[in-house]
Automatic annotation (TrEMBL):
Record has Signal as a keyword: yes
Name of a matching Pfam family: SBP_bac_8
Bias type Polar residues, positions: 25-47
Organism of derivation: Fontibacillus panacisegetis
GO cellular component assignments: ATP-binding cassette (ABC) transporter complex, substrate-binding subunit-containing
Signal peptide limits: 1-19
Name of this protein: Carbohydrate ABC transporter substrate-binding protein, CUT1 family
Family classification: Belongs to the bacterial solute-binding protein 1 family.
Length: 436
């Protein structure tokens, strides 16, 4: 009897000892419970950081917003993502310039995208509205792999939110069958227009979206005007109605002589149609149109902007397109994984091949497919003479007043000084209304 009792006690002690040895391992949190790196002990006693793998949530599905030109890219990447993670991707068309504003409305209602393409200038507005999740899990990887300016563009108050996809600016596409090259300065453009234009036949030398706050900025930037001081970060210093801004407005207004249309008569679809039909010699656009223009204009070229009458190059806006993860997504892990995959070197190169968009990824931009492309090299050259769109929230108060200002200048011939003063006053008034 004593022997049996001793055996039972011994067995109990062994079981307790074994349970104690396995207790630490059984309590280690999973990736889903704690996605932060853990610290493990190596055999020699040294500590080593072991980063756990980010895993999608069970049953995750994602809606991705992007422009129509990127549908093929998203669907192709979606297939790869589904095979790797078992997460289906649904593409929904939404312009990058409109997505953040739409998410401010749709996100809280639970009907927005999980991942969406946006333009960096709306980052501040999105942050203020609580639209984004920070790019935290892949932060260091994103910083190491992408152009520094692209990273800064999607960062606010030292927190990175976006996953940079492409950098862009605009330049002048031209039909080599209609004009051998883009003139070096605007005097050359004006002289060519005198011989080429035929407004009754919808035939024009040079066209851009004349009523747009975005497409007209190259005139103001080239003359030395600016939206906000301190590299676009100081909303108390608006430089659009200074001496340089007024000179830019005067010159812009004078170009009505070679493009005698109303601002509402020109948009990208009209320009594209005229360009394809051989009725437009020079068409201002960005690298995203390289592929589509090449399909309809057989002898296509692209050039930097003509110099302004002050002898300076035009300085158009430049921007960064990036994917963002919604703060309202039900599947943040899956969304972060897809945003990271679609912005990888491989997919940025594929994006360049499909749309001509210039990669933000450093290795992708150095790929021979990019460096040997004559169109990409011109846009990169123009990028050097460009101005990044401000990303602070106050920038949201620029487009509408500026659009109204250029319409007054172009359609009604109003006094440039008066128009620009009114425009700046309207911006300041908008700031006060928002702050109140």
């Amino acid at each position: 009897m004593k022997t049996k009792l001793l055996n039972v006690l011994l067995l109990f002690v062994i079981v307790v000892a074994l349970a104690g040895c396995g207790g630490t391992a059984s309590q280690t949190p999973t990736t889903e419970q704690n996605p932060d790196p853990t610290v493990a002990q190596e055999p020699n006693g040294n500590s080593a950081a072991v980063e756990e793998e980010l895993k999608p949530e069970p049953g995750a599905t994602l809606i991705v917003w992007d422009g129509g030109e990127d549908k093929a890219l998203i669907e192709s990447a979606g297939k790869v993502f589904a095979e790797k993670y078992g997460v289906s991707i649904t593409f929904s068309e939404m312009s990058a310039s409109e997505s953040i504003g739409q998410m401010i409305t749709d996100g809280p209602a639970g009907i927005g995208a999980d991942v969406f393409m946006g333009v960096h200038d709306r980052t501040g507005s999105g942050v203020d509205a609580g639209v984004f999740l920070p790019n935290d899990w892949f932060e260091e990887e994103t910083k190491a792999n992408n152009n520094e300016l692209a990273v800064l563009a999607v960062t606010t108050d030292d927190i990175m939110y976006g996953y940079p996809m492409s950098v862009e600016t605009s330049a002048v596409f031209y039909n080599k069958d209609l004009i051998s090259e883009v003139p070096a300065d605007w005097n050359g453009v004006i002289e060519f227009a005198k011989t080429f234009n035929d407004p009754k036949a919808n035939k024009f030398a040079y066209m851009w979206d004349i009523g747009s706050s975005y497409w007209n900025y190259g005139f103001f930037g080239g003359y030395g005007a600016y939206i906000f001081g301190n590299d676009g970060t100081d909303p108390t210093d608006i430089g659009l109605n200074n001496e340089q801004g007024v000179e830019a407005a005067k010159f812009y207004q004078s170009l009505n002589a070679i493009l005698p249309l109303q601002t509402s008569d020109v948009n990208k679809d009209i320009r594209k149609s005229l360009f394809s039909d051989g009725k437009l010699a020079m068409n201002v656009s960005g690298p995203w149109d390289t592929v589509s223009f090449g399909k309809t204009v057989k002898n296509l070229g692209v050039s930097v902007y003509p110099n302004l009458p002050n002898g300076q190059p035009m300085k158009p806006f430049s921007g960064v397109k990036a994917y963002y993860v919604s703060a309202h997504t039900k599947y943040p892990n899956a969304a972060k994984l897809f945003a990271n995959l679609i912005t990888s070197e491989e997919w940025q190169i594929k994006n360049f091949e499909l749309t001509g968009a210039l990669p933000a990824n450093k290795k992708a931009s150095e790929n021979s497919k990019v460096t040997s492309d004559p169109f990409a090299s011109v846009f990169l050259a123009q990028f050097k003479n460009s101005v990044p769109m401000p990303s602070i929230a106050e920038y949201a108060q620029y487009p509408t007043p500026m659009g109204a200002a250029v319409a007054s200048l172009w359609n009604e011939g109003k006094d440039p000084k008066e128009v620009m003063d009114n425009m700046v006053n309207q911006m300041k008034s908008n700031f006060n209304q928002v702050s109140n």
